[in-house]
Write a structure and sequence with these properties.
Number of helices: 8
Low-confidence stretches: none
Helix content: over 70%
Order of helices and strands: HHHHHHHH
Distance between the termini: 44 Å
Strand content: under 5%
Number of strands: 0
Oligomer: single chain
Shape: extended
Mean pLDDT: 86
């Protein structure tokens, strides 16, 4: 078993090296070209991230989440979505780490086996960090007009939030 474990780290580079040699590819040149392209991509993505992440933290610190929760409470109760998940639903399209922190807070406050905790977990697993994905992938591809993609992605997130709450209630 130890011999197999010792051979595994050499297996992948060995296979790649053999494939490159068979095709006549200069591995070092390919690696440096990939690194150069990766740095160029990071240069295009970094400005979006530099704006997005502080905006998320300002939203949480400003008290806007609490005000929006109070505004949405009647609708969410009617739809069967736990009101306590509003911060998670607002943060999830913006930032995965902020949404994960909100989900962790919900599970710490209500317990992971509670309806709120389960709903938060399913919401985290069934939705995406929409604006992060749009900024990173569309920025990398050089796409500037994301209006329709953003609307479609936000509709998908809303459907995911609603389906998560309904599935948790159904399977309780």
């Amino acid at each position: 078993m130890r011999t197999l474990t010792a051979l595994l780290p050499a297996l992948l580079p060995g296979i790649v090296g053999l494939a490159a040699a068979a095709r006549g590819v200069d591995v070092f040149a390919a690696l440096t070209d990939g690194a150069r392209r990766g740095l160029e991509l990071m240069g295009r993505i970094l400005p979006s991230l530099a704006v997005l992440l502080p905006a998320v933290y300002m939203l949480r610190a400003s008290g806007a989440l609490e005000a929006f929760t109070a505004l949405c409470t009647p609708l969410l109760e009617h739809l069967g979505i736990p009101v306590e998940t509003v911060p998670l639903m607002l943060l999830r399209p913006l930032s995965g780490s902020a949404a994960l922190a909100a989900g962790g807070e919900l599970m710490a406050a209500f317990g992971p086996d509670s309806a709120v905790g389960r709903t938060a977990a399913v919401m985290l697993g069934s939705t995406e960090t929409t604006f992060y994905v749009l900024s990173v992938y569309f920025g990398a591809a050089g796409v500037k007009k994301i209006r329709h993609a953003a609307a479609a992605a936000l509709c998908a997130d809303a459907a995911g939030f609603l389906a998560a709450a309904w599935c948790v209630r159904l399977l309780r």
